[in-house]
Amino acid sequence: MQVAVFHPGTQHSRQTALALQELGRLAFLATGLFDHPDNALRQLAKRLPQGLARQVEGELARFAFARLDADKVRAMPEYELPERIAARLGARRLAGMLDTGLNQAFGRKVAAMAGAEGPLALWGYDGSSASAFTDKRTRDCYKILDRTTADSRSWNLERERIAETHGDWLGGGSPAWSKHRIERDDIEFDAADTIVCGSPFVMETIREHSPVPGVAGKLELLPYCFDADLFASGEPIAPAAKGEPVRFLFAGQVSARKGVQHLLEAIECLPSGDARLTLLGPVAVPDKILARYRDRVDIVGPVARSEVPAIMRQHHALVFPSHNEGSAVVLLEAMASGLAVIQTAASGMGASARSGFVLERPSAGLVEQAMRRLIEDREMLQAMREAAKAEAAAREFGAYRASIASLLERKGI
């Protein structure tokens, strides 16, 4: 049976589709935006004024994936562009409404294609699979839900705990999930035949919080991969010299959910000559809070993905004390770049005891303690960096493809 992958956005759907393509099992990838030389949007951009054309082409390039056969991709920008435009204009409420409505319509469109071309297995992602999985036209399709985040109820409970101690940090980047979203999640859990999860943490939260009968028996661990072409490097890892500060990096949304408050509180407790911190990614905490730490922190903000590897290789360790994730791919990207890792178990599948510290919970004290150990023991830091690079090699794309092949075989697809 061939497999149809569908996601109106991106996440890791391109890697999933490529794995299935290389296994000879991809029916098609249905998505919102996909860039290739013959793309109608790219042809339209060429007719725009030069400056605007460059901006549009640069934005489209974010949705390119050259290794995928363009003939296997069905791009439907009408299901993604309106939401993105609303978000860029700052109309967050409208963007949220468009996301919900267009995801439902996108799922129904996928159901129509599957009904006409089936029987197929459907591989969908959380937030955009409910309408496709419950449509009568897909009743004969095997349904795989790729759950990319922990159970929504687990985050809402964790958010309440954060609010008790760091409520002013929550800002706009860490909203609670709505009752509607939680209900939709359970619809997807119920309709799916298999639910693949990127980390044991995600599986644990679903088992603990979802009331869907039999949901635990549907869960399968499917660890993510990273882009080795971009992040893996054959360059030797230059040790941190005894006298220089250890350069710590946070990469991702700078938000309370990601635990940046614990990292900033920790860095304040360390001598300025021992440690330097860089924040890389969109900022979602109030400016007045971040201003307290500007003398100790380099705030880079978001950058093009192609710039991230070079930035990573300028640092010695990644600190990612997240409260609630699916499985953060940035952990693997940093490890492949030769960084030791300080993370929480909730951050996902990343470091081992050889390559970093996996903290039992997000805490400024625990983060500070781990940072101090790397500062004080440069031999440990170097050994962890070397181990991180070696361990990341086992999580390249080939391993992900093999895991998908094994899953399909076990499920008889």
Annotation keywords:
43% helix, alpha/beta, Glyco_trans_1, transferase, seven-stranded parallel sheet, Rossmann fold, Glycosyltransferase family 4 protein, 15% strand, 17 helices
Instruction: Estimate nothing, just give the exact number of structural domains.
Output: 2
CATH superfamily of the largest domain: Glycogen Phosphorylase B
Strand order of the largest sheet: 3-2-1-4-5-6-7
The first-to-last residue Cα distance is 6 Å
What is the overall number of helices? 17
Helix content: 40-55%
**Proportion in β-strands:** 15-25%
- By DSSP, the count of extended strands is 13
Q: C-alpha Rg, in Å?
A: 22 Å
Largest sheet: 7 strands, parallel
Mean pLDDT: 92
Structural class: alpha/beta
Order of helices and strands: EHEHHEHHEHEHHEHEHEHEHEHEHEEHHH
- The CATH architecture name of the largest domain reads 3-Layer(aba) Sandwich
Shape: globular
CATH fold annotation of the largest domain: Rossmann fold
Which residue ranges are poorly predicted, with pLDDT under 50 across at least 5 consecutive positions? Answer: none
- What is the class of the largest domain in the CATH system? Alpha Beta
Keywords: Transferase
Pfam families: Glycos_transf_1
Organism: Qipengyuania xiapuensis
Protein name: Glycosyltransferase family 4 protein
Structure characterization notes:
- The chain has 413 residues and is an alpha/beta fold.
- The protein folds into 2 domains: 3-32 and 76-225 and 397-411, Rossmann fold (3-Layer(aba) Sandwich), CATH 3.40.50.2000; 228-395, 3-Layer(aba) Sandwich (Rossmann fold).
- The chain has 17 helices and 13 strands.
- The chain has helices at 13-22, 40-45, 50-61, 81-88, 92-117, 130-134, 152-166, 179-191, 200-209, 228-231, 260-268, 287-290, 308-312, 329-336, 364-376, 378-392, 397-411, and strands at residues 3-7, 26-31, 73-75, 121-125, 142-147, 194-197, 219-221, 246-251, 275-280, 297-301, 317-320, 340-344, 356-359.
- The strands form 2 sheets. A 7-stranded parallel β-sheet has the order 3-2-1-4-5-6-7, sandwiched between helices. A 6-stranded parallel β-sheet has the order 10-9-8-11-12-13, sandwiched between helices.
- Helix 4 runs antiparallel to helix 5 (92-117).
- The protein is globular, with a radius of gyration of 22 Å.
- The protein starts with a strand and ends with a helix.
